[in-house]
Amino acid sequence: MITKIGKTAIELAKNITGVFSLLVSILYWAVVGPFKGKAAARQSIFSQMIFAGLSSGLIVFFVTIFTGIVLAMQSAYQLQKMGAVLYVASLVAISLCRELSPVLTALVVAGRVGSAIAAELGTMKVSEQIEALETMAINPVRFLAVPRFLALFFMLPCLTIIGNISGMLGGYLVGVYSLKINPDLYIQTTFKYLEIKDIYTGITKSFVFAVIIALIGCFEGLNTKGGAEGVGRATTRSVVISFILIILADCVVTAIFYFSKI
Amino acid sequence: MSENVSKEEPIISLKNVSKYFQDKKTIDNVSLDIYRGETFVIMGCSGSGKSTMVRLMTGILKPDEGSIFIKGKDIAKISSEELDEVRKTFGMLFQYSALLDSLTVEENVALPIKEHAKLADEIIDIIIKMKLSLVGLRGYEKYYPSQISGGMRKRVGLARAIALDPDIVFYDEPTSGLDPVVGGAIDKLIKELSEKLLITSVVITHDMQSVFNIADRVAMIHKGRIVDVMPAKVLNNSSNPYIQQFINGRPNGPIDFFKEDINIEEIFGL
Would you tell me which of A164, A209, A257, B149 could form a disulfide with A106, CB atoms 3.0–4.6 Å apart? Predict the structure, then answer.
Protein backbone atom coordinates (compact mmCIF):
# COMPACT_ATOMS: atom_id res chain seq x y z
CA MET A 1 0.00 0.00 0.00
CA ILE A 2 2.65 2.48 1.12
CA THR A 3 4.93 1.48 -1.73
CA LYS A 4 2.03 2.01 -4.11
CA ILE A 5 1.42 5.52 -2.77
CA GLY A 6 5.14 6.20 -2.96
CA LYS A 7 5.33 4.99 -6.55
CA THR A 8 2.34 7.12 -7.57
CA ALA A 9 3.88 10.15 -5.88
CA ILE A 10 7.19 9.60 -7.67
CA GLU A 11 5.36 9.16 -10.97
CA LEU A 12 3.41 12.37 -10.37
CA ALA A 13 6.55 14.31 -9.48
CA LYS A 14 8.24 13.00 -12.62
CA ASN A 15 5.31 14.10 -14.76
CA ILE A 16 5.20 17.56 -13.21
CA THR A 17 8.91 18.12 -13.74
CA GLY A 18 8.52 16.71 -17.25
CA VAL A 19 5.75 19.18 -18.08
CA PHE A 20 7.79 22.09 -16.74
CA SER A 21 10.93 21.10 -18.59
CA LEU A 22 8.84 20.81 -21.77
CA LEU A 23 7.48 24.31 -21.11
CA VAL A 24 11.00 25.64 -20.65
CA SER A 25 12.24 24.06 -23.85
CA ILE A 26 9.16 25.22 -25.82
CA LEU A 27 9.73 28.77 -24.58
CA TYR A 28 13.42 28.48 -25.39
CA TRP A 29 12.76 27.41 -28.98
CA ALA A 30 9.90 29.87 -29.41
CA VAL A 31 11.72 32.91 -28.01
CA VAL A 32 15.47 32.28 -28.26
CA GLY A 33 15.40 29.87 -31.22
CA PRO A 34 14.56 32.46 -33.92
CA PHE A 35 17.63 34.51 -32.95
CA LYS A 36 19.83 31.47 -33.44
CA GLY A 37 18.43 30.94 -36.92
CA LYS A 38 16.43 27.95 -35.68
CA ALA A 39 12.87 29.26 -35.83
CA ALA A 40 9.91 26.93 -36.11
CA ALA A 41 8.68 26.63 -39.70
CA ARG A 42 6.22 29.41 -40.44
CA GLN A 43 4.23 27.17 -42.75
CA SER A 44 3.66 24.67 -40.00
CA ILE A 45 2.59 27.39 -37.54
CA PHE A 46 0.01 28.65 -40.02
CA SER A 47 -1.36 25.22 -40.82
CA GLN A 48 -1.71 24.56 -37.08
CA MET A 49 -3.44 27.93 -36.67
CA ILE A 50 -5.94 26.95 -39.32
CA PHE A 51 -6.54 23.60 -37.67
CA ALA A 52 -6.68 24.89 -34.09
CA GLY A 53 -8.37 28.21 -34.76
CA LEU A 54 -10.32 28.49 -37.95
CA SER A 55 -11.73 24.97 -37.88
CA SER A 56 -12.78 25.34 -34.25
CA GLY A 57 -14.66 28.59 -34.96
CA LEU A 58 -17.99 27.03 -35.83
CA ILE A 59 -18.15 24.66 -32.88
CA VAL A 60 -17.17 27.47 -30.49
CA PHE A 61 -19.87 29.61 -32.07
CA PHE A 62 -22.56 26.99 -31.48
CA VAL A 63 -21.49 26.12 -27.95
CA THR A 64 -21.42 29.74 -26.80
CA ILE A 65 -24.57 30.91 -28.61
CA PHE A 66 -26.58 28.18 -26.89
CA THR A 67 -24.93 28.99 -23.60
CA GLY A 68 -25.93 32.62 -24.12
CA ILE A 69 -29.52 31.56 -24.79
CA VAL A 70 -29.68 29.32 -21.74
CA LEU A 71 -28.05 31.95 -19.56
CA ALA A 72 -30.55 34.59 -20.69
CA MET A 73 -33.52 32.33 -20.03
CA GLN A 74 -32.29 31.21 -16.62
CA SER A 75 -31.48 34.69 -15.44
CA ALA A 76 -34.75 36.05 -16.84
CA TYR A 77 -36.56 33.47 -14.72
CA GLN A 78 -34.89 34.91 -11.63
CA LEU A 79 -34.95 38.56 -12.60
CA GLN A 80 -38.62 38.55 -13.61
CA LYS A 81 -39.52 38.08 -9.95
CA MET A 82 -37.78 41.36 -9.18
CA GLY A 83 -39.02 43.10 -12.27
CA ALA A 84 -35.49 43.59 -13.48
CA VAL A 85 -35.66 41.70 -16.76
CA LEU A 86 -33.73 44.44 -18.55
CA TYR A 87 -30.60 43.49 -16.61
CA VAL A 88 -30.51 40.14 -18.39
CA ALA A 89 -28.45 41.96 -21.01
CA SER A 90 -25.61 43.00 -18.73
CA LEU A 91 -25.71 39.80 -16.72
CA VAL A 92 -25.29 37.70 -19.84
CA ALA A 93 -22.53 39.91 -21.21
CA ILE A 94 -20.49 40.08 -18.03
CA SER A 95 -20.76 36.45 -17.05
CA LEU A 96 -19.87 35.39 -20.58
CA CYS A 97 -16.87 37.65 -20.99
CA ARG A 98 -15.46 37.09 -17.54
CA GLU A 99 -16.09 33.43 -17.15
CA LEU A 100 -18.14 31.27 -19.42
CA SER A 101 -16.79 32.07 -22.82
CA PRO A 102 -13.09 31.59 -21.94
CA VAL A 103 -13.74 28.38 -20.00
CA LEU A 104 -16.18 26.80 -22.44
CA THR A 105 -14.01 27.70 -25.44
CA ALA A 106 -10.99 26.24 -23.70
CA LEU A 107 -12.88 23.03 -22.89
CA VAL A 108 -14.08 22.69 -26.47
CA VAL A 109 -10.58 23.31 -27.82
CA ALA A 110 -9.04 20.92 -25.29
CA GLY A 111 -11.42 18.23 -26.47
CA ARG A 112 -10.91 18.94 -30.12
CA VAL A 113 -7.35 20.23 -30.54
CA GLY A 114 -5.56 19.04 -27.40
CA SER A 115 -6.65 15.46 -28.00
CA ALA A 116 -5.64 15.70 -31.67
CA ILE A 117 -2.18 16.95 -30.69
CA ALA A 118 -1.74 14.08 -28.23
CA ALA A 119 -2.99 11.51 -30.75
CA GLU A 120 -0.83 12.82 -33.59
CA LEU A 121 2.37 13.17 -31.59
CA GLY A 122 1.65 9.87 -29.83
CA THR A 123 1.31 8.06 -33.15
CA MET A 124 4.52 9.69 -34.33
CA LYS A 125 6.23 8.57 -31.15
CA VAL A 126 5.19 4.92 -31.35
CA SER A 127 5.98 4.68 -35.07
CA GLU A 128 9.55 5.93 -34.48
CA GLN A 129 8.94 9.21 -36.32
CA ILE A 130 10.07 11.27 -33.33
CA GLU A 131 13.20 9.17 -33.05
CA ALA A 132 13.77 9.65 -36.79
CA LEU A 133 13.61 13.43 -36.28
CA GLU A 134 16.16 13.17 -33.48
CA THR A 135 18.59 11.13 -35.57
CA MET A 136 18.22 13.73 -38.32
CA ALA A 137 19.35 16.28 -35.71
CA ILE A 138 15.92 17.95 -35.79
CA ASN A 139 14.69 18.85 -32.33
CA PRO A 140 11.15 17.42 -32.00
CA VAL A 141 10.12 20.15 -29.56
CA ARG A 142 11.08 22.86 -32.03
CA PHE A 143 9.71 21.00 -35.02
CA LEU A 144 6.43 19.72 -33.56
CA ALA A 145 5.59 21.27 -30.19
CA VAL A 146 6.45 24.93 -30.84
CA PRO A 147 4.15 25.42 -33.87
CA ARG A 148 1.25 23.83 -31.99
CA PHE A 149 1.97 25.86 -28.89
CA LEU A 150 2.17 29.16 -30.77
CA ALA A 151 -0.91 28.39 -32.84
CA LEU A 152 -3.00 27.69 -29.74
CA PHE A 153 -1.52 30.64 -27.87
CA PHE A 154 -2.69 33.07 -30.53
CA MET A 155 -5.87 31.34 -31.65
CA LEU A 156 -7.54 30.52 -28.33
CA PRO A 157 -7.96 34.21 -27.34
CA CYS A 158 -9.38 34.87 -30.82
CA LEU A 159 -11.82 32.02 -30.38
CA THR A 160 -12.73 33.39 -26.95
CA ILE A 161 -13.61 36.74 -28.53
CA ILE A 162 -15.79 34.91 -31.06
CA GLY A 163 -17.36 33.12 -28.08
CA ASN A 164 -18.02 36.44 -26.30
CA ILE A 165 -19.77 37.86 -29.34
CA SER A 166 -21.82 34.80 -30.22
CA GLY A 167 -22.83 34.29 -26.58
CA MET A 168 -24.08 37.86 -26.39
CA LEU A 169 -25.93 37.24 -29.64
CA GLY A 170 -27.67 34.29 -27.98
CA GLY A 171 -28.67 36.50 -25.08
CA TYR A 172 -29.88 39.14 -27.50
CA LEU A 173 -32.12 36.64 -29.29
CA VAL A 174 -33.85 35.66 -26.05
CA GLY A 175 -33.99 39.24 -24.74
CA VAL A 176 -35.46 40.74 -27.87
CA TYR A 177 -37.68 37.99 -29.24
CA SER A 178 -38.87 36.30 -26.07
CA LEU A 179 -38.60 38.90 -23.33
CA LYS A 180 -39.61 41.68 -25.76
CA ILE A 181 -36.91 44.08 -24.69
CA ASN A 182 -36.33 46.89 -27.16
CA PRO A 183 -33.27 45.91 -29.28
CA ASP A 184 -31.55 49.27 -28.87
CA LEU A 185 -32.14 49.24 -25.16
CA TYR A 186 -30.78 45.68 -24.92
CA ILE A 187 -27.56 46.65 -26.67
CA GLN A 188 -27.26 49.80 -24.62
CA THR A 189 -27.69 47.92 -21.35
CA THR A 190 -25.18 45.32 -22.49
CA PHE A 191 -22.41 47.86 -22.98
CA LYS A 192 -23.39 50.14 -20.15
CA TYR A 193 -22.21 47.70 -17.52
CA LEU A 194 -19.63 45.77 -19.50
CA GLU A 195 -16.22 47.24 -18.75
CA ILE A 196 -13.01 46.75 -20.64
CA LYS A 197 -11.49 44.91 -17.67
CA ASP A 198 -14.24 42.28 -17.92
CA ILE A 199 -13.04 41.50 -21.40
CA TYR A 200 -9.33 41.46 -20.72
CA THR A 201 -9.61 39.31 -17.60
CA GLY A 202 -11.38 36.77 -19.81
CA ILE A 203 -8.74 37.05 -22.52
CA THR A 204 -5.96 36.71 -19.93
CA LYS A 205 -7.56 33.47 -18.79
CA SER A 206 -7.68 32.17 -22.33
CA PHE A 207 -3.91 32.71 -22.71
CA VAL A 208 -3.37 30.61 -19.59
CA PHE A 209 -5.73 27.92 -20.89
CA ALA A 210 -3.96 27.86 -24.25
CA VAL A 211 -0.65 27.16 -22.51
CA ILE A 212 -2.28 24.35 -20.53
CA ILE A 213 -3.91 22.70 -23.55
CA ALA A 214 -0.83 22.84 -25.77
CA LEU A 215 1.52 21.77 -23.01
CA ILE A 216 -0.53 18.78 -21.84
CA GLY A 217 -1.29 17.66 -25.40
CA CYS A 218 2.38 17.81 -26.41
CA PHE A 219 3.60 16.24 -23.18
CA GLU A 220 1.23 13.29 -23.36
CA GLY A 221 1.93 12.83 -27.06
CA LEU A 222 5.70 12.97 -26.78
CA ASN A 223 5.67 10.59 -23.80
CA THR A 224 3.41 7.96 -25.32
CA LYS A 225 4.49 4.39 -24.73
CA GLY A 226 3.30 1.13 -26.19
CA GLY A 227 1.51 1.04 -29.52
CA ALA A 228 -2.07 1.87 -30.42
CA GLU A 229 -3.29 1.35 -26.88
CA GLY A 230 -0.72 3.83 -25.63
CA VAL A 231 -1.91 6.42 -28.15
CA GLY A 232 -5.48 5.94 -26.92
CA ARG A 233 -4.38 6.31 -23.33
CA ALA A 234 -2.36 9.44 -24.11
CA THR A 235 -5.33 11.02 -25.90
CA THR A 236 -7.73 10.32 -23.03
CA ARG A 237 -5.23 11.50 -20.45
CA SER A 238 -4.58 14.72 -22.34
CA VAL A 239 -8.29 15.58 -22.37
CA VAL A 240 -8.93 14.62 -18.74
CA ILE A 241 -5.85 16.38 -17.40
CA SER A 242 -6.47 19.49 -19.52
CA PHE A 243 -10.08 19.69 -18.30
CA ILE A 244 -9.07 19.45 -14.66
CA LEU A 245 -6.21 21.92 -15.04
CA ILE A 246 -8.38 24.40 -16.95
CA ILE A 247 -10.98 24.46 -14.18
CA LEU A 248 -8.26 24.65 -11.54
CA ALA A 249 -6.43 27.45 -13.34
CA ASP A 250 -9.73 29.27 -13.81
CA CYS A 251 -10.29 29.15 -10.08
CA VAL A 252 -6.77 30.40 -9.34
CA VAL A 253 -6.80 33.19 -11.93
CA THR A 254 -10.28 34.33 -10.87
CA ALA A 255 -9.12 34.41 -7.25
CA ILE A 256 -6.10 36.49 -8.21
CA PHE A 257 -8.29 38.99 -10.05
CA TYR A 258 -10.83 39.01 -7.24
CA PHE A 259 -8.40 39.56 -4.40
CA SER A 260 -6.28 42.06 -6.27
CA LYS A 261 -9.46 44.00 -7.04
CA ILE A 262 -8.88 44.11 -10.76
CA MET B 1 38.51 -6.17 -46.75
CA SER B 2 38.82 -6.76 -43.05
CA GLU B 3 42.49 -7.68 -43.33
CA ASN B 4 43.66 -4.29 -44.56
CA VAL B 5 41.24 -2.05 -42.67
CA SER B 6 42.10 -3.29 -39.21
CA LYS B 7 45.11 -0.99 -38.92
CA GLU B 8 43.07 2.16 -39.59
CA GLU B 9 41.42 4.36 -37.01
CA PRO B 10 37.89 3.02 -36.45
CA ILE B 11 35.03 5.35 -37.46
CA ILE B 12 32.77 3.91 -34.76
CA SER B 13 34.22 2.50 -31.60
CA LEU B 14 32.39 1.08 -28.59
CA LYS B 15 34.42 0.59 -25.43
CA ASN B 16 33.02 -1.55 -22.62
CA VAL B 17 29.49 -0.30 -23.19
CA SER B 18 26.67 -1.45 -20.90
CA LYS B 19 23.06 -0.41 -20.81
CA TYR B 20 20.41 -1.27 -18.23
CA PHE B 21 16.66 -1.23 -18.54
CA GLN B 22 15.03 -1.42 -15.10
CA ASP B 23 17.94 -3.35 -13.56
CA LYS B 24 18.09 -5.71 -16.54
CA LYS B 25 21.38 -5.58 -18.38
CA THR B 26 20.37 -5.30 -22.04
CA ILE B 27 23.86 -4.53 -23.33
CA ASP B 28 26.63 -6.20 -21.41
CA ASN B 29 30.16 -4.83 -21.66
CA VAL B 30 30.33 -4.59 -25.44
CA SER B 31 33.49 -3.45 -27.23
CA LEU B 32 33.46 -3.09 -30.98
CA ASP B 33 35.34 -1.31 -33.75
CA ILE B 34 33.81 -0.46 -37.13
CA TYR B 35 36.03 0.85 -39.89
CA ARG B 36 35.52 3.35 -42.67
CA GLY B 37 33.84 2.03 -45.79
CA GLU B 38 32.91 -1.41 -44.53
CA THR B 39 29.47 -2.95 -44.25
CA PHE B 40 29.23 -4.23 -40.73
CA VAL B 41 26.32 -6.49 -39.84
CA ILE B 42 25.11 -7.05 -36.30
CA MET B 43 22.96 -10.16 -36.18
CA GLY B 44 21.10 -11.84 -33.38
CA CYS B 45 17.71 -13.08 -32.27
CA SER B 46 14.83 -10.80 -31.40
CA GLY B 47 15.43 -9.30 -27.99
CA SER B 48 19.17 -9.89 -28.10
CA GLY B 49 19.91 -6.18 -27.86
CA LYS B 50 20.58 -5.39 -31.53
CA SER B 51 18.20 -2.44 -31.71
CA THR B 52 19.49 -1.10 -28.41
CA MET B 53 23.01 -1.22 -29.84
CA VAL B 54 22.08 0.93 -32.81
CA ARG B 55 20.15 3.35 -30.60
CA LEU B 56 23.26 3.71 -28.47
CA MET B 57 25.36 4.44 -31.56
CA THR B 58 22.92 7.08 -32.81
CA GLY B 59 22.80 8.78 -29.42
CA ILE B 60 19.08 8.16 -28.86
CA LEU B 61 20.03 6.18 -25.77
CA LYS B 62 22.93 6.98 -23.48
CA PRO B 63 25.12 4.14 -22.21
CA ASP B 64 25.15 3.55 -18.45
CA GLU B 65 28.79 2.44 -18.59
CA GLY B 66 31.55 2.76 -21.14
CA SER B 67 31.92 5.15 -24.05
CA ILE B 68 30.96 5.31 -27.70
CA PHE B 69 33.24 7.13 -30.12
CA ILE B 70 32.05 8.26 -33.52
CA LYS B 71 34.89 9.78 -35.52
CA GLY B 72 36.80 10.16 -32.29
CA LYS B 73 34.05 11.99 -30.39
CA ASP B 74 32.52 10.42 -27.31
CA ILE B 75 28.84 10.92 -28.15
CA ALA B 76 27.67 10.16 -24.61
CA LYS B 77 29.65 13.07 -23.17
CA ILE B 78 29.33 15.84 -25.76
CA SER B 79 26.66 18.54 -25.61
CA SER B 80 23.42 18.18 -27.55
CA GLU B 81 24.60 20.77 -30.10
CA GLU B 82 27.76 18.79 -30.75
CA LEU B 83 25.74 15.58 -30.91
CA ASP B 84 23.53 17.20 -33.55
CA GLU B 85 26.66 18.06 -35.54
CA VAL B 86 27.73 14.42 -35.40
CA ARG B 87 24.22 13.31 -36.33
CA LYS B 88 24.30 15.41 -39.49
CA THR B 89 27.07 13.14 -40.75
CA PHE B 90 25.04 9.98 -40.46
CA GLY B 91 21.71 8.70 -41.71
CA MET B 92 19.42 6.02 -40.43
CA LEU B 93 16.92 3.71 -42.06
CA PHE B 94 14.27 2.64 -39.56
CA GLN B 95 12.59 -0.73 -39.35
CA TYR B 96 9.20 0.72 -40.27
CA SER B 97 10.76 3.54 -42.33
CA ALA B 98 9.48 6.21 -39.87
CA LEU B 99 8.56 8.64 -42.64
CA LEU B 100 6.54 11.62 -41.47
CA ASP B 101 2.92 10.83 -42.41
CA SER B 102 1.99 14.45 -42.92
CA LEU B 103 4.65 15.06 -45.58
CA THR B 104 4.87 13.81 -49.15
CA VAL B 105 7.72 11.64 -50.39
CA GLU B 106 9.70 14.60 -51.66
CA GLU B 107 9.07 16.65 -48.53
CA ASN B 108 10.28 13.74 -46.42
CA VAL B 109 13.52 13.49 -48.39
CA ALA B 110 13.87 17.29 -48.41
CA LEU B 111 13.38 17.61 -44.65
CA PRO B 112 16.98 17.05 -43.49
CA ILE B 113 18.31 19.15 -46.39
CA LYS B 114 15.99 22.06 -45.65
CA GLU B 115 16.76 21.89 -41.95
CA HIS B 116 20.52 21.71 -42.19
CA ALA B 117 21.69 23.09 -45.51
CA LYS B 118 21.01 26.63 -46.64
CA LEU B 119 20.30 25.89 -50.27
CA ALA B 120 18.02 27.41 -52.88
CA ASP B 121 14.78 25.53 -53.52
CA GLU B 122 15.82 24.68 -57.09
CA ILE B 123 19.00 23.01 -55.88
CA ILE B 124 17.09 21.09 -53.21
CA ASP B 125 14.71 19.93 -55.94
CA ILE B 126 17.62 18.60 -57.97
CA ILE B 127 19.10 16.82 -54.94
CA ILE B 128 15.73 15.19 -54.18
CA LYS B 129 15.41 13.99 -57.77
CA MET B 130 18.92 12.56 -57.60
CA LYS B 131 18.33 10.76 -54.33
CA LEU B 132 14.98 9.39 -55.48
CA SER B 133 16.45 8.09 -58.71
CA LEU B 134 19.23 6.39 -56.71
CA VAL B 135 16.52 4.35 -54.98
CA GLY B 136 14.45 4.02 -58.15
CA LEU B 137 11.49 6.12 -57.08
CA ARG B 138 11.34 8.98 -59.58
CA GLY B 139 7.73 9.91 -60.28
CA TYR B 140 6.50 9.27 -56.74
CA GLU B 141 7.43 12.73 -55.40
CA LYS B 142 3.88 13.85 -54.66
CA TYR B 143 2.66 10.66 -52.99
CA TYR B 144 2.08 10.40 -49.26
CA PRO B 145 3.70 7.56 -47.30
CA SER B 146 0.27 5.96 -46.76
CA GLN B 147 -0.24 5.73 -50.53
CA ILE B 148 2.84 3.65 -51.34
CA SER B 149 3.85 0.09 -50.46
CA GLY B 150 6.09 -0.98 -47.58
CA GLY B 151 9.05 -1.65 -49.86
CA MET B 152 8.70 1.77 -51.45
CA ARG B 153 8.49 3.38 -48.02
CA LYS B 154 11.74 1.65 -47.11
CA ARG B 155 13.34 3.06 -50.23
CA VAL B 156 12.07 6.56 -49.44
CA GLY B 157 13.49 6.08 -45.95
CA LEU B 158 16.78 5.17 -47.56
CA ALA B 159 16.68 8.22 -49.82
CA ARG B 160 16.07 10.36 -46.72
CA ALA B 161 18.91 8.64 -44.86
CA ILE B 162 21.38 9.52 -47.62
CA ALA B 163 19.95 12.99 -48.28
CA LEU B 164 22.81 14.81 -46.57
CA ASP B 165 25.51 12.59 -48.12
CA PRO B 166 26.34 10.90 -44.82
CA ASP B 167 29.54 9.06 -43.93
CA ILE B 168 27.70 6.42 -41.94
CA VAL B 169 24.27 4.88 -42.50
CA PHE B 170 22.56 2.74 -39.87
CA TYR B 171 20.03 0.21 -41.07
CA ASP B 172 17.56 -1.24 -38.58
CA GLU B 173 16.25 -4.50 -40.07
CA PRO B 174 16.24 -3.18 -43.65
CA THR B 175 14.60 -6.28 -45.13
CA SER B 176 12.14 -7.26 -42.42
CA GLY B 177 8.53 -7.37 -43.53
CA LEU B 178 9.45 -7.34 -47.22
CA ASP B 179 9.08 -10.10 -49.77
CA PRO B 180 12.34 -11.80 -50.84
CA VAL B 181 12.53 -9.97 -54.16
CA VAL B 182 12.11 -6.50 -52.67
CA GLY B 183 14.38 -7.55 -49.81
CA GLY B 184 17.01 -8.53 -52.35
CA ALA B 185 16.60 -5.19 -54.11
CA ILE B 186 17.12 -3.35 -50.82
CA ASP B 187 20.24 -5.43 -50.16
CA LYS B 188 21.54 -4.53 -53.59
CA LEU B 189 20.88 -0.85 -52.89
CA ILE B 190 22.75 -1.00 -49.59
CA LYS B 191 25.70 -2.68 -51.29
CA GLU B 192 25.69 -0.17 -54.16
CA LEU B 193 25.45 2.82 -51.87
CA SER B 194 28.36 1.71 -49.76
CA GLU B 195 30.46 1.04 -52.85
CA LYS B 196 29.46 4.09 -54.92
CA LEU B 197 29.24 6.66 -52.15
CA LEU B 198 31.85 5.06 -49.85
CA ILE B 199 29.38 4.94 -46.99
CA THR B 200 30.12 3.00 -43.84
CA SER B 201 27.07 0.83 -43.25
CA VAL B 202 25.99 -0.64 -39.94
CA VAL B 203 23.21 -3.13 -40.52
CA ILE B 204 21.10 -4.86 -37.91
CA THR B 205 19.30 -7.91 -39.15
CA HIS B 206 18.30 -11.49 -38.50
CA ASP B 207 17.79 -12.17 -42.21
CA MET B 208 20.64 -14.54 -43.10
CA GLN B 209 20.13 -14.09 -46.85
CA SER B 210 20.74 -10.41 -46.37
CA VAL B 211 23.82 -11.06 -44.22
CA PHE B 212 25.44 -13.16 -46.95
CA ASN B 213 24.48 -10.60 -49.60
CA ILE B 214 25.91 -7.48 -48.07
CA ALA B 215 28.21 -8.07 -45.12
CA ASP B 216 31.94 -7.45 -45.01
CA ARG B 217 32.17 -8.30 -41.34
CA VAL B 218 29.61 -9.81 -39.00
CA ALA B 219 29.09 -9.59 -35.25
CA MET B 220 26.82 -12.06 -33.52
CA ILE B 221 25.09 -10.75 -30.42
CA HIS B 222 23.26 -12.81 -27.83
CA LYS B 223 21.73 -11.60 -24.57
CA GLY B 224 23.51 -8.28 -24.90
CA ARG B 225 26.96 -9.80 -25.37
CA ILE B 226 29.06 -10.04 -28.49
CA VAL B 227 29.49 -13.75 -29.15
CA ASP B 228 31.91 -13.39 -32.04
CA VAL B 229 33.09 -10.97 -34.75
CA MET B 230 34.34 -12.36 -38.04
CA PRO B 231 34.57 -11.65 -41.77
CA ALA B 232 31.39 -12.70 -43.58
CA LYS B 233 33.38 -14.98 -45.88
CA VAL B 234 34.27 -17.38 -43.09
CA LEU B 235 30.84 -17.29 -41.46
CA ASN B 236 29.76 -20.64 -42.88
CA ASN B 237 32.89 -22.36 -41.63
CA SER B 238 32.71 -20.92 -38.15
CA SER B 239 33.00 -23.45 -35.38
CA ASN B 240 31.15 -21.21 -32.96
CA PRO B 241 28.03 -23.14 -31.88
CA TYR B 242 25.96 -19.95 -31.48
CA ILE B 243 26.70 -18.88 -35.03
CA GLN B 244 26.08 -22.34 -36.43
CA GLN B 245 22.72 -22.53 -34.65
CA PHE B 246 21.76 -19.06 -35.84
CA ILE B 247 22.68 -19.37 -39.50
CA ASN B 248 21.04 -22.76 -39.77
CA GLY B 249 17.99 -21.72 -37.78
CA ARG B 250 18.01 -24.71 -35.45
CA PRO B 251 15.67 -24.51 -32.47
CA ASN B 252 18.06 -26.45 -30.22
CA GLY B 253 21.50 -25.30 -29.24
CA PRO B 254 23.26 -22.82 -27.01
CA ILE B 255 20.68 -20.12 -27.84
CA ASP B 256 17.95 -21.33 -25.50
CA PHE B 257 15.36 -18.81 -26.49
CA PHE B 258 12.33 -21.08 -26.33
CA LYS B 259 13.44 -23.64 -23.84
CA GLU B 260 11.70 -22.18 -20.81
CA ASP B 261 8.72 -20.92 -22.75
CA ILE B 262 7.49 -23.96 -24.59
CA ASN B 263 7.40 -27.42 -23.18
CA ILE B 264 4.84 -29.26 -25.24
CA GLU B 265 5.18 -32.48 -23.33
CA GLU B 266 4.35 -30.73 -20.10
CA ILE B 267 1.47 -28.79 -21.63
CA PHE B 268 -0.19 -31.95 -22.90
CA GLY B 269 0.74 -33.93 -19.82
CA LEU B 270 2.75 -36.52 -21.69
Answer: A209
